[in-house]
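Internal tracking record. Fields below are filled automatically when a chain is submitted to the structure queue. Please do not edit lines marked as system-generated. If the sequence contains nonstandard residues, flag them in the REMARKS field before resubmitting.
Queue: standard
Priority: normal
Entity type: single polypeptide chain
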Amino acid sequence: MKISAHTLFKNEERWLWFSVTSVVDYVDKLLLWDTGSTDRSWDVAMTIKEKYGKKIDLRRYGEVTPETFPEVRQAMLDATDSDWFIVVDGDEIWWQESITKVIKTIQKAGPKTESIVVPTMNMVGDIYHRQPKNAGKYKFGKYKGHYNLRAIKRSISGLHSVGEHGVWGWADGDGNQIQDRISSQNRNTFKFVDAPYMHTTFLPRGESREDDKKVPKRFKKLKYEIGQKLPNDFYFPEVFFKDKPSFVPSPWKPMATAYKLRAIVETPIKKFKRRFKNEKVGY
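SYSTEM-GENERATED OUTPUT FOLLOWS
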């Protein structure tokens, strides 16, 4: 049973090292493709390549727009020869226990299991604060909130990448989204694994605000919000404590004062909107 990982990146200097090195030891191969970075993300990727050698498929793919996003995902799929692959974006950092659970689930999966859904911990402001669970918008069967489809069996008939960035997903030959496929027993073919990863999608990710602006739709992802403070004994992903290149930014930087002031104003509005929406849909 071979397992690969797919990592696309553009201006992910702040988190790319932590993301890739949190999973690379658990997979047989990792595709690490740059789509036009202007910060030091390529330097990070080169350092990873130097450390892990042939296990890393490092490429400069070229610029990608929201409309051509499914094409690069399809190209990654076409370049994959493993039985399963895990999507690991440059802003996703895994705990050792979590990635181990996913790998073991894949290795033990029967023929009816085609994909794996896991919970996410979405950070806001800094890595010391998380977004509340009721802010999550994704839905997979009975699971609603901060969840994501992260591992997929490559042998699904007609598996392909479809939809521009923002509504993109994996689909089968009949156009059905992978998470919506139903087995002969009238059950979803995805398996939920309680193996969360830390998601820094709402934090700055490039070297500067200008670098983040160069990535389609990313600047809109920066959330001004005072999230739920993590407890003092919170167990952070192990990769944060390992040796890293000196030019990789520290993950321990707290939210800036200007950010905090704006977040204090905007947070009550966000809470009211979520409460109203959740009551409206009957959550």
